[in-house]
Each structure stands twice: as C-alpha cells, then as structure tokens.
C-alpha cells in the first residue's frame, strides 16, 4: 500500500512519479483532512465517555442511551422456537430460530430485498410489505399451520424510545429512510396491525435494536462479549449498564427491578457529537449532512458508516473533476453528479483491486460512471478510497474505547457485525490499530479485541424474546412503572 505524507516521501516518488505535481499536492491536502491522529482519537474518546454518561442523565445529551428493558443476561440455556425479523437498511430478513438451550441455535432464514423507493414510501406500504413476507415465510415453514401464535422478536435498527420491551417510539429515521407517520409513534402496533390484516398467526413480543440483539446473541455463546456493535449501513453500539447507574430511570422502575439489575443500553451513538465539538468534520461531511433528510442528526454516523462512504468519495472526486478540473478531463460527469450513486461496495472494490495497473478500478468507473480513467487518476482514486476507509475504521472504534473506559473493562470482546465490518477491506486491521493507538497497550496481545458477532437480529432477537417470555411467566416487569 502506498502512503503519501511527510513520513513516507520515498513512496511518493516511487509510486506517484507519473502523477502531476498539482494532484499530488491535492492528495496531501486530503491526507491531512482525512487522517485521524492517535491524539485526536484519544480526545474523541474522552468526550465520548462524557457523552455516554450525559445520555444516561435525566437532562440527556446528544447520545440517546436508550434503556432497552433487556434486564437479564442470557444464560445460554434459553430454548424454544422463535421468529425474528430484521428491518435493515437494504433488506428484510425473516428468521426461524431454534434455540437449543446449550449455547447453541439453528436458524432457517429468507431474505427479501426492500423494493426500490421503500425508504420514502407510505408507512402502510412498509408494514404491509413486512407482513406479506412474514406470511410467505410462515406458510413455507409451517405448511400444516400453527397451533398457537408464533412469538416474534422484531429487530428495528433505528433509534426508538422504549417504555417497555414490546414497544418503541421512533425518534427519527436514519440511513436515508424518510417515511411519514412513523416518527413519534410506536412502531409495534403499526406492524401488528398489518400482520393481522394479512391474517398471519404472529405476536410481536419484543422490539430490539440490532446492536442489542448482537450483544445478547454474542453473550449467549461467548462469555467475554461485552458489547454488540454494528458497522454497516449505519453504526451503533449496545452494552449492559447497571440500573442504579442510569439516573434517568429514577422513579420509573417497578419494585421487582433491583438497583443492581443489569439493563442493556442501546446507545444510538451515531448521534455522537451532533454539537460538533470534537469530530474532525470536513466540508464533505458538512455537505452530506446539509443535503440529508435529517440535517444536524447522526453526525458521527455520517462520517463513518457504509451509507455515506461512497458519497464522501463522490464529493471529493466531483470537486477534483468539476470544480478544479484536475481529473476526468472532457468526460461526461452526469453520473458522478448524482448523489448516492456510489454505494459502499464502490470504494470497497477500489481498495480490493489486486492489479498493479488498477484495471478493476478502470472497469468499475467505466461501468458505473461511464468515465474513462487514466493510470495516474486511478492511483489517486485508490489513495482517496484508502483515506476514507481508514478514517471510518479509526473513528468507528472510539465508541468501543469509550464503553470500555466507562465500564472499567480492561479486557473485552467487542462483538461486531455489519457490512462494513464484514466486507470493507482493511477495516478490521485499521480498527485494531486504532484501539492500540488509544490504549497504548504494551502487552503482546491486545486485551480488547473486536470479534465477529453471532447473528444478532436472528438469534439475538430470539433469545431476547425468550428472556421476555420467561420474565412475563414469572410475573416480572418488562417496562416502566405503570
Ligand atoms: C440506527 C441504529 C442502528 C444502526 C446500525 C443507525 O442508523 O440509528 O438504531 O443500530 O444504524 O444499524
């Protein structure tokens, strides 16, 4: 990998000899804009800890820190058949989970692509689509019919305030969703109404954030798991706090909930630093925010998550091509001018190109943007993609570091899932390096590591549904005092 910058001038000479000086100069500027130093990571982490704490207070802060009413740790012994659905950024997944009761589970699943335009459709279209997919799935999996309604764990990966485990009032859509009539409303009755309309024998018993599901599913199989994280279309994390350390719950708890009880918290830390105090935002980030359906929201997420990485690249390339006229001369830029034309797979494929002459990149630009690239342009493009990917990975881990420091974890498995974590080249290595930069460990092995999570929105949702059913059977509370 070629690195420009003061520490590696020899690379620049060696590999960028054919790149015009003015472009190399632009690259230097981008490098200093997009590179996040160890010092900055430490500063961000310190502010992150303050913000996590603030979110738990009555007065609140930027990070919502939502109590999820998951009041038990999974034991690994949870058993039974559960349905789970996961409404993600691009797909709906329906899963039948058979919890084995011995830290094990089996899943059968179907994935349904969200039809084009779903992000901005009418709410009935969304809920009916989910209900129809559920109907298809249940008819296939239970051809003889069901004797009792199937319990369903609904993974809803958006910030939703929970007054109990089976409700969730959507605070705001994220990741480009913008469906009217859902924000400010409980999503569970909306879905349940469509389920009933389609006559599917299903009862929504728990509403679960994807990070909470990831946390619980990972703890079911890995006792070292301390948090569940999603690095995907969006970004977020969940961990267990202790009830007595959550001031905003004061006066809201039923008497059966002990002050020492665990409570899973869905941080919703994509909203970290909406005040713009510490994040090194660039003009590209500011533009993305301004043009998004929810300006001022999800500041952290907009710099690092998969929904935005291709867009950051597009804005940089557009500036170099259109404003500065330094690349893609005399080319038709119609496609490049289209917001969000580049999804995350685009920068990801650029980084993956194994060929010295970057022929995959050439092909990619040809097919997606109808732009012919020169060899020097491709080198620049690759370096920019690296910078964007590296920034994302390094900033992403500040949430992990902050949770560990807040909870005093000296060792931990941070269980991660999501398309960026799973597929973005170099993300894992860069994230691990970022953690080392923050903690300055002297040990040979890193004490806090990111591990691949168990299936949060399948198994996690099922385990949470099982934990909820058990609490209800025992007459224990699953929400605020009524
Ligand atoms: C949502 C979170 C979610 C994360 C990862 C964010 O946009 O607000 O609820 O956990 O994406 O899917």
Globular, elongated, flat, extended or rod-shaped: what is the shape? globular
Q: What pattern of helices and strands is seen along the backbone?
A: HHHEEEEHEEEHEHEEEHHHHHHHEHHEH
Mean pLDDT: 94
Distance between the termini: 59 Å
What is the makeup of the main sheet? Answer: 6 strands, mixed
Instruction: Name the bound molecules.
Output: beta-D-glucopyranose
Number of strands: 13
> What strand line-up does the widest sheet have?
1-11-10-9-12-13
Describe this structure in words.
This protein is of the alpha/beta class. It has a domain at 79-210 and 456-473: 2-Layer Sandwich (Nucleotidyltransferase, domain 5), CATH 3.30.420.40. 42% of the residues lie in helices and 16% in strands. The protein is built from 16 helices and 13 strands. The protein has helices at 9-15, 21-34, 38-56, 123-141, 187-197, 210-221, 283-291, 299-304, 306-323, 345-352, 359-369, 375-396, 398-407, 419-423, 427-439, 456-473; strands spanning 66-67, 79-87, 91-100, 105-113, 150-156, 160-161, 169-170, 202-208, 225-231, 235-242, 262-266, 412-417, 448-452. A 6-stranded mixed sheet has the order 1-11-10-9-12-13. The chain has a 5-stranded mixed sheet with strand order 4-3-2-5-8. α4 packs across α5. The radius of gyration is 23 Å and the shape is globular. Residues 1-14 have low confidence and may be disordered. Beta-D-glucopyranose (BGC) binds at residues 157-159, 174-175, 209-211, 230, 232, 234-236, 268, 270, 301.
